[in-house]
Each structure stands twice: as structure tokens, then as C-alpha cells.
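A quick aside before the break. I want you to see a complete sequence-to-structure record at least once, exactly as it would be stored in a machine-readable document. Don't worry about memorizing anything.
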Amino acid sequence: QVQLVESGGGLVQAGGSLRLSCAASGSIFSIRSMGWYRQAPGKQRELVASIASGTSTNYADSVKGRFTISRDNRKNTMYLQMNSLKPEDTAVYYCYADIVRVAIPRGNDYWGQGTQVTVSS
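That is the input. The structure line, written in C-alpha cells, reads:
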């Protein structure tokens, strides 16, 4: 089995910063795309940022210029550096990964448990 473990969430004042991490482990052959999603109360889950196995990245318009997604393929770990945080960034942040497992020739979707990010005004 494959597991995604998230860390780095917490409480921060507006204008502050947080760095989220997502580490994948298990019978991994390769990790294709990865991304961060978030869901606030009463709202749909939305894509915050994504990154392919190479260098291609994508950001939601609301976080462009403030958030930076990156990954370390040797460590099977993804990061989200969040700067200039705003109260509207408050949400549960989820890690996603498209992972090909050893001996199984297809990709599968995996999700982390989610980590709470709260930005106070």
C-alpha cells in the first residue's frame, strides 16, 4: 500500500507564512503528478497548485505570486510554501498524488488526511 503523510499546518496571522510537506511512502514505482487541494467550510474542494514529475506547475489565480509548489523526487516529498497568507486561505489542505505502484502497470489516485491551515485577521 501507499501512504501520504502531511505536515506543516497550523495557526498563523495574516501576512505570515507556512510550509506544508507531503511525504509518500510504500511500494512506489514512480510518482507522476502531485498537487495541493483545499476545502473551506461550505465551499467545494479546489486545486491550489499542482506539479508534474518534471518541472511543470499550475496555480490557482488566488494564490499566484504568494504560494510556491515544489517536489523532491529522491525523497518522494512535495512542498507548498505559503507566503503573505490571508484569512481567505483558511481551509483544510489535502495532498494528492498519482502513483504507479511496483508491479502494477497503472496509476492510482492517493490522498492525504488533510492538514488544517487557519489564518487569523
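Two observations worth writing down. Residues 15 and 84 are 4 Å apart (CA to CA). The chain has a mean pLDDT of 96. We'll return to this after the break.
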